[in-house]
Amino acid sequence: MAERRKFSDYEKKTIYAKADGKCEICGRRVKFKDMTVDHKIPLTKGGTNELENLQLAHLGCNRAKADMLYEEFLSLAQNIVKNSKRARIKSLFAR
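Predicted structure:
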């Protein structure tokens, strides 16, 4: 497994430019000073520190995704939203 490491300013600027300054998890703008680098394929799942495996992310998005693949994270998020909507609908009828 590759080791976690700090990225150089050049690497960060390259990742930022590649993403046009937008979080590749949620799509919203990220200030350069607030950016984090996310591994598309997490290191824990065999990912590398190569630029092709790195993407721009908000700190919150990066932490929420944790060591999941994007598809796993998206599925989890959709289930949370679906269950939340169900709970709100049930509470409306419980009154």
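Summary: The chain has a mean pLDDT of 91.
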